[in-house]
Amino acid sequence: MLKKKLTIKIILFLIFSDILETLIHLCFKKGVSSYSYQQVSTLADLLAFFTGVFSSPFLWLGLLLVFLTFIVWSTILSKIDLSVAVPIASFSYILVPFTSALILHETVSWLRWSGVFFILVGVIFVSLSTREKEAHL
Amino acid sequence: MKEGVIFTLFLIVLTSICDTVNQLFLKSAINTLSSPSGNILNILKFILKLVLIPRVWISLLFSITSLCIWLFVLSRADLSFAFSADSMHYIFIAIASRFVLKEKVGLKRWIGIIFIVIGIAVISFS
């Protein structure tokens, strides 16, 4: 059964899921930021790293958002096809570098942006082809 | 490419592989059940049946491993780089779907995969 109707409500849900996805990774990055480039050479170091990271409130906020995203995605996928949802949702491939530059002050060169563009096109192609498969069902 | 970039890419490959194994176990577990119809109660019943399958727990184990590696990656790489490079799980999942789950992978999907590979190569040099 094809579910194709893209209503305003679904589009808002998709934008919401993009923002959530971006927030998750910003939270994770913030959560590990105090352990940046920490020397890890023994198993004890690794254990200390994870104890530290898992006691960060940012990390748990991120995990909470993962759970919320799961619910939002389940709702989206019950209304529209995966092949329609994924290309719109892959907007987060632009949103993440954008917010990384804006909030985390990372430098995103034009070369990196062009790489992001290739990935975006690739992700859209990969998901579009699911239509062929659904046609057989 | 600096040596640090290669190590980070290796870790991202590892987290993507864990992700792929996680998805394969989850999908093969889900394939044993019939998909639920629309209402919430049926979906809840479906999830309950699902968590009783041991393969789902293996899947969860891999997803936790993937998360741990991912956090380690984020502690030593730019988010804008790591998140983009993580798109390589699309490649692994497509290949695994083809050879493990015996799904059909169409031409458009292979073209998409080539684009992703080029994109990851470009951001790795940036």
Question: In brief, what are we looking at here?
Answer:
The complex is a heterodimer of chains A (137) and B (126). Chain A has seven helices and no strands.
Summarize the helices and strands and which ones pair or pack.
The complex is a heterodimer of chains A (137) and B (126).
Chain A: H1 8-32, H2 43-53, H3 57-79, H4 82-89, H5 92-102, H6 110-128, H7 130-136
Helix pairs in contact in A: 1-3, 1-5, 4-6
Chain B: H1 3-31, H2 40-51, H3 54-75, H4 79-85, H5 89-99, H6 107-125
CA-atom Rg of chain A in angstroms: 18 Å
Category by helix and strand content of chain B? mainly alpha
How much of the polypeptide of chain A forms β-strand, as a percent range?
A: under 5%
> Are there runs of chain A of 5+ residues with pLDDT below 50, and where?
none
Averaging pLDDT over every residue of chain A, what do you get? 83
**Average residue pLDDT of chain B:** 86
User: How many helices of chain B does DSSP assign?
Assistant: 6
Assign a percent range to the helix content of chain B: over 70%
Q: Sum up the overall morphology of chain B in one term.
A: globular
Number of strands of chain B: 0
Write down the overall geometry of chain A: globular
* Interface with most residues: A-B, 48 and 41 residues
Order of helices and strands of chain B: HHHHHH
Overview of the molecule:
The complex is a heterodimer of chains A (137) and B (126). Chain A has 137 residues and is mainly alpha-helical. Chain A has seven helices and no strands. Chain A has one domain (8-136). In chain A, helix 1 packs across helix 5 (92-102). Chain B has one domain. Chain B has six helices and no strands. The longest helix of chain B has 29 residues, at 3-31. The model of chain B has no long low-confidence stretch (mean pLDDT 86). Classes of the chains: A mainly alpha (137), B mainly alpha (126). Chain A binds chain B through residues 25-26, 28-29, 31-33, 35-38, 40, 49-50, 53, 59, 74, 78, 93, 96-97, 100-101, 104, 106, 108-109, 111-112, 114-129, 132-133, 136, and chain B through 38, 43, 68, 70-72, 74-76, 78-81, 83-84, 87, 90, 94, 103-109, 111-126.
